[in-house]
Automatic annotation (TrEMBL):
Annotated segments matching region Disordered: 756-775, 782-801
Name of the protein described by the UniProt record: Chloride channel protein
Subcellular location: Cell membrane; Early endosome membrane; Late endosome membrane; Lysosome membrane
Function: Strongly outwardly rectifying, electrogenic H(+)/Cl(-)exchanger which mediates the exchange of chloride ions against protons. The CLC channel family contains both chloride channels and proton-coupled anion transporters that exchange chloride or another anion for protons. The presence of conserved gating glutamate residues is typical for family members that function as antiporters.
Topology within the bilayer: Multi-pass membrane protein
Length: 801
């Protein structure tokens, strides 16, 4: 589970001694109580909302939703209108996921059609219908041949249109130049639109969506401008021929649709936790239209991106994925009645001895994932220190130019990546004319069937293997440099292409080995002469799953996604073998909490003896997100927790709406107002914004429990107490630092005080009165105390407290 924080999540505060002391008397208590601004009766606009780049309070959002649900149920029997509102609230969840699924499927179909047309535009144009791509242009032609099914008079290359030559060096050079021109044009337009209109539209979007689903606020990341620019630039980026895919960004597009539609329903627009249920369903719909895998989309949302995934979200995610898949199937963007271009079906079973090459492909996928992650991180760090980081448009143009120049001579790199995967997945049949299927046929064969027996490879196969090896090296290098540039870019398809190339090469090698050495003991039982033993396309599929799993670290959802691509249950075992082949806390809460040594003491608010000016000064002098509220500086027993934003909004609202609220007004967080002199200004009661039940742990709570609590409850912060006395605070950032220390095998912070026989000095002195304390450290030693206590006080003063 990922934690994302900002600097504002540091809830450490300044000096707790800030505040003005007032003499409390019994006089004027009745009159002063009538002057209170009781915010319990008058809700304050803006209280309970969140600033940009802040985390939400899951516990508070869930409490708000329960209160809303309770209020609706209590009123639904009052009138028919209230009953209608109750039914609308109950069905709003299904309505919003239905709209999300419809929009996701429609946009995915539009993106697929536009990307295919613009990809073929780099090579030529259809004169009979400009909106047709190459394949569609030749569908109605009667002049195509079986060997050259992609050539028809209606489709004209740029060389034919410009110089009137279809063959020869001049034609090749002109097509080469036009290919580079269109690639650079598409890439430049994509990066320019992203930079000017929607900077959040770059990248795949999945890491940020995982961050948002974990409770982080990123304003505008799922907005309408991001959706519009992402949809347009995704088509341009794919058509430019860069080593990227559209499947990852489709999840971002679907989540943008879910976020926009959630604002139509108050149930989701006013509650950040409920809105994330819609986003979980939207991410499932995005994977559904990206891979044609509704079940895999639900599992992807559950396994990879979602932080909070209740049972009702599971059903709604599945429904959204089905609706999106149905809409995409109705559009039929590829003309094959399938949801994806590279849908395949194999008719030959796999054999036990093939588990060994499948596992080797899994090892290759793990090595590729480790290499890509390290190399891409190193390049991203390098980018920050070079001109590429300052000029993202120049970087995209350079990468696109290098990609186009190197990709055009090789037919496998010139292809659209999805078409390349389709060709590598496809099994060689009697109607296949690809060079990968250029085998030497047996002239003595009596009949032609679908399951063609293994044959010796011809010159076309050997030539294709060399081209695939070059394409593999090219894809590996360019994917490292492409992922991270300022255009929409997915990692799924490039990783699958790399694995499919490696898998097809291995599959052909095993096939030829079984053909020429069928008498070996590992082939003897299954690979007889004339039998269809090895399916190279299956190896390409397994390699694609292995490389995708190596990069994304997906397991169960990836197996189901690839299973839905192939439509066969019998390949679950080899997929699992490939995907799964990849490469204790000892501290306590007191060791991780803040403040530590050399830190300023923990700033706190007292419940009834601070003024408005004191609180405003504390807010202005610090940049922290909230403050613990204690009974008094003498006892320091916890009362609650007040957020910085709520304090600011409440004070500003009180100054505008109420007369008599000045800087010297007493701020009261208690239920009952203390006695004040009659001439004192009107007090301000802020108990309504106080979290009366902040999550707390004791100083001796093991950190593995604290980490588990943060993960399962989605906490923003947790207070550390000892016998009800506030000692410090633990935030998400502290948790991250602690986990990073464990990952790097660094010794945890040494706890210098909690192993002592006696942790704290007594709360009361020999005279029975409370001792003055600052952060539980005795200010002045008491002469009557034992020597042991004096040593403890000295030890406390020198520790992290």
């Amino acid at each position: 589970m990922d934690f994302q924080t900002s600097e504002d999540d540091n809830l450490l505060d300044g000096d707790a001694s800030i505040g003005t002391h007032y003499t409390m008397t019994n006089g004027g208590s009745v009159n002063s109580s009538t002057h209170l601004l009781d915010l319990l009766d008058e809700p304050i606009p803006g209280v309970g909302t969140y600033d940009d780049f802040h985390t939400i309070d899951w516990v508070r959002e869930k409490c708000k939703d329960r209160e809303r649900h309770r209020r609706i149920n209590s009123k639904k029997k009052e009138s028919a209108w209230e009953m209608t509102k109750s039914l609308y609230d109950a069905w709003s969840g299904w309505l919003v996921v239905t709209l999300t699924g419809l929009a996701s499927g429609a946009l995915a179909g539009l993106i697929d059609i536009a990307a295919d047309w613009m990809t073929d535009l780099k090579e030529g144009i259809c004169l009979s219908a400009l909106w047709f791509n190459h394949e569609q242009c030749c569908w109605g032609s009667n002049e195509t041949t079986f060997e050259e099914r992609d050539k028809c008079p209606q489709w004209k290359t740029w060389a034919e249109l410009i110089i009137g030559q279809a063959e020869g060096p001049g034609s090749y050079i002109m097509n080469y130049i036009m290919y580079i021109f269109w690639a650079l044009s598409f890439a430049f337009l994509a990066v320019s639109l992203v930079k000017v209109f929607a900077p959040y539209a770059c990248g795949s979007g999945i890491p940020e969506i995982k961050t948002i689903l974990s409770g982080f606020i990123i304003r505008g990341y799922l907005g309408k401008w991001t959706l519009m620019i992402k949809t347009i630039t995704l088509v341009l980026a794919v058509a430019s021929g860069l080593s990227l895919g559209k499947e990852g960004p489709l999840v971002h597009v679907a989540c943008c649709c879910g976020n926009i539609f959630s604002y139509l329903f108050p149930k989701y627009s006013t509650n950040e936790a409920k809105k994330r249920e819609v986003l979980s369903a939207a991410s499932a719909a995005g994977v559904s239209v990206a891979f044609g895998a509704p079940i895999g989309g639900v599992l992807f949302s559950l396994e990879e991106v979602s932080y909070y995934f209740p049972l009702k979200t599971l059903w709604r995610s599945f429904f959204a994925a089905l609706v999106a898949a149905f809409v995409l199937r109705s559009i039929n963007p590829f003309g094959n009645s399938r949801l994806v271009l590279f849908y395949v079906e194999y008719h030959t079973p796999w054999y036990l001895f093939e588990l060994l090459p499948f596992i080797l492909l899994g090892v290759f996928g793990g090595l590729w994932g480790a290499f890509f992650i390290r190399a891409n991180i190193a390049w991203c760090r390098r980018r920050k220190s070079t001109k590429f980081g300052k000029y993202p448009v120049l970087e995209v143009i350079i990468v696109a130019a290098i990609t186009a120049v190197i990709a055009f001579p090789n037919p496998y790199t010139r292809l659209n990546t999805s078409e390349l995967i389709k060709e590598l997945f496809t099994d060689c049949g009697p109607l296949e004319s690809s060079s990968l299927c250029d085998y030497r046929n047996d002239m003595n064969a009596s009949k032609i069937v679908d399951d063609i027996p293994d044959r010796p490879a011809g010159t076309g196969v050997y030539s294709a293997i060399w081209q695939l090896c070059l394409a593999l090296i090219f894809k590996i290098i360019m994917t490292v440099f492409t992922f991270g540039i300022k255009v929409p870019s997915g990692l799924f398809i490039p990783s699958m292409a790399i694995g499919a190339i490696a898998g097809r090469i291995v599959g052909i090698a095993v096939e030829q080995l079984a053909y020429y050495h069928h008498d070996w003991f590992i082939f003897k039982e299954w690979c007889e002469v004339g039998a269809d033993c090895i399916t190279p396309g299956l190896y390409a599929m397994v390699g694609a799953a292995a490389c995708l799993g190596g990069v994304t670290r997906m397991t169960v959802s990836l197996v189901v996604i690839v299973f839905e691509l192939t439509g066969g249950l019998e390949y679950i075992v080899p997929l699992m073998a490939a995907v799964m082949t990849k490469f204790t806390h000892t501290t306590l809460a007191a060791d991780v909490m803040r403040p530590r040594r050399s830190d300023p003491p923990l700033a706190v608010l007292t419940q009834d003896n601070m003024t408005v000016e004191d609180i405003e000064n504390l807010i202005n002098e610090t940049s922290y997100n909230g403050f613990p509220v204690i009974m008094s500086k003498e006892s320091q027993r916890l009362v609650g927790f007040a957020l910085r934003r709520d304090l600011t909004i409440a004070i500003e609202s009180a100054r505008k709406k109420q007369e008599g609220i000045v800087g010297s007004s007493r701020v009261c967080f208690a239920q009952h107002t203390p006695s004040l002199p009659a001439e004192s200004p009107r007090p301000l009661k802020l108990r309504s914004i106080l979290d009366m039940s902040p999550f707390t742990v004791t100083d001796h709570t093991p950190m593995e429990i604290v980490v588990d609590i943060f993960r399962k409850l989605g906490l923003r912060q947790c207070l550390v107490t000892h016998n009800g006395i506030v000692l410090g605070i633990i935030t998400k950032k502290n948790i991250l630092e602690h986990l990073e220390q464990l990952k790097q095998h660094v010794e945890p912070l040494a706890p210098p005080w909690h192993y002592n026989k006696k942790r704290y000095p007594p709360s009361y002195g020999p005279d029975g009165k409370p001792r003055p304390r600052l952060n539980n450290v005795q200010l002045k030693p008491i002469a009557e105390e034992r020597e042991e206590t004096e040593e403890e006080v000295h030890l406390l003063n020198s520790t992290t407290l």
